[in-house]
Amino acid sequence: MAMAELSTPKTTSPFLNSSSRLRLSSKLHLSNHFRHLLLPPLHTTTPNSKIPCSVSQNSQAPVAVQENGLVKTKKECYGVFCLTYNLKAEEETRSWKKLINIAVSGAAGMISNHLLFKLAAGEVFGPDQPIALKLLGSERSIQALEGVAMELEDSLFPLLREVDIGTDPNEVFQDVELAILIGAKPRGPGMERADLLDINGQIFAEQGKALNKAASPNVKVLVVGNPCNTNALICLKNAPNIPAKNFHALTRLDENRAKCQLALKTGVFYDKVSNMTIWGNHSTTQVPDFLNARINGLPVKEVITDHKWLEEGFTESVQKVYTDGNPYASSPGDRCSNCLCTSTSDRFLMRAFFGTKPRQVVSSAHSRRLGAVLINSYVVEVGVRP
Ligand SMILES: NC(=O)c1ccc[n+]([C@@H]2O[C@H](COP(=O)([O-])OP(=O)(O)OC[C@H]3O[C@@H](n4cnc5c(N)ncnc54)[C@H](O)[C@@H]3O)[C@@H](O)[C@H]2O)c1
Ligand SMILES: O=C(O)C[C@H](O)C(=O)O
Predict the structure, then answer these.
(1) Which of 25, 83, 312, 375 would disulfide-bridge 64, Cβ 3.0–4.6 Å?
(2) Residues whose CB is less than 8 angstroms from the CB of residue 236 and which lie 6 or more positions away in sequence, other chains included
(3) In angstroms, what is the span from residue 137 Cα to ligand 1's centroid?
């Protein structure tokens, strides 16, 4: 890491997105970053005071655009992301793709905590794809959400061009091209995912309406919050202007689990298991399809001769994983969400859908018209379009 020096911008104080509805009440814990709201605006500081700032060795810091000697700021933004940069010089030497607007709900939660940093680092859409993150939180999580925005800011990800935070989906979803809907309650011990429908269903009705109104008409929607299949259907039904085929529910985790089970049984590394897909819901009724899966290129039934295990033990181990409490959760008995592997699954799936992975066969729960719209997991072939 090299140390660079940036001049303090001659500007008014950066402000938080109005949609965050953050107010400075006496109850609000004031973090260091947040204190600037109480400090005099930056234009009262010495114009050229230096702020040390670490940047990656090879990149020159882009210069913020100025008008009438004042640094231009955006309206709805967070901290350093309020500045408008002139990236023309960079565009001449690098070919950036057009920026994509990505909304993430539940952005202060466990899964997002892992996923957002992978998105910002370019691990999902590649090193030439700039992104803008629109982070949606609940009123309760707004302080934590602000903390997430600060961490993103401090990370200086070159591809991360904007971060907005808010609690109103109608504002946060404005013009988004991808919406990853994670914000929902996770299940507790002894609960089935379906038990969450009463609590979580309403969230996805509201967010469906907001997407319908505010998002880009071709927005792709990935529902993670459980029960994800039903929530995806609720969301879709509340967003009639968005093509039904754009809605997906995350069942990729089941596919990964099934691969692990087969790898464990046969002692192969899991990359030797292919064509493993899931049919049905992200629930105890799903069917992991071992009939079409391959181990080292051979049909599973040829490699595993214990067919009773395949039909019962294997199937059940994927269907019922962690129903009685998740050993990987940070505090077992308290919550049952697998944040790290879920964020990895999100990543796999999005990479697959946005074509940054070679062609492959995966399972995905997405809508299908069989008389009626169904959201269930089935086999899809995805990858770079010829
Ligand atoms: N499909 C899958 O493979 C999969 C895997 C793991 C978890 N999940 C589900 O994902 C959901 C989130 O899990 P988590 O571990 O991140 O939970 P978490 O409790 O850590 O985070 C959820 C966050 O969402 C926020 N939130 C709640 N309601 C909201 C709303 N209306 N709008 C915006 N934000 C809201 C909460 O304040 C919280 O910050 C759960 O429903 C869980 O069951 C799905
Ligand atoms: O099982 C849960 O409740 C969380 C998630 O859907 C998972 O499969 O791990």
Answers:
(1) 83
(2) 208, 221, 242, 244, 247, 367, 373, 375
(3) 10
Q: Return the sign of the alpha-carbon dihedral for residues 279, 284, 290, 291.
A: negative
Atom of ligand 2 nearest to the CA of 257: 8
Cis peptide before 227 (omega within 30 of 0): yes
Ligand 2 atom with minimal separation from the 336 CA: 3
Secondary structure in 3-state letters for 13-71? CCCCCHHHCCCCCCCCCCCCCHHHHCCCCHHHCCCCCEEEEEECCCCCCCEECEECCEE
Look-up of token digits 């901290």: 79
Q: What is the pTM of this model?
A: 0.79
Per residue in 296-353, pLDDT (tens digit) is 999 999 999 999 999 999 999 888 865 444 444 433 333 345 666 666 666 666 655 5
- Mutation test residue for ligand 2: of 222, 326, 328, 335, the one with most atoms within 8 Å of CB: 326
What is the C-alpha separation between 8 and 23, in angstroms, rounded?
26
Cβ–ligand 2 distance for 276 under 6 Å, the answer no
The predicted complex's ipTM stands at 0.98
Residues 239 and 209 sit within 8 Å (Cβ to Cβ): yes
As annotated, the active-site residues are 282
> What are the pLDDT digits (tens) for 228-266?
999 999 999 999 999 998 998 888 888 888 998 999 999
Q: Tens digit of pLDDT for each residue in 66-91?
A: 777 777 777 767 777 777 777 666 66
> Using one digit for the tens of pLDDT, what is the confidence trace for 169-226?
999 999 999 999 999 999 888 888 899 999 999 999 999 999 999 999 999 999 999 9
Q: Which residues, 6 or more positions from 308, have their beta carbon under 8 angstroms from its beta carbon?
A: none
Distance 336 CA to ligand 2 centre (A): 7
Using CA atoms, how far apart are residues 289 and 377, in angstroms rounded to an integer? 11
Strand pairing report for 294-295 and 273-274? antiparallel
The sign of the CA dihedral 39, 43, 49, 54 is positive
Q: Is 141 in the pocket of ligand 2 (CB under 6 A)?
A: no
What would the two tokens of residue 283 be? Answer: 């629930």
Q: Which atom of ligand 1 is nearest to the CA of 252?
A: 3
Ligand positioned closest to the Cα atom of 193? 2
Ligand number with the minimum distance to the CA of 324: 2
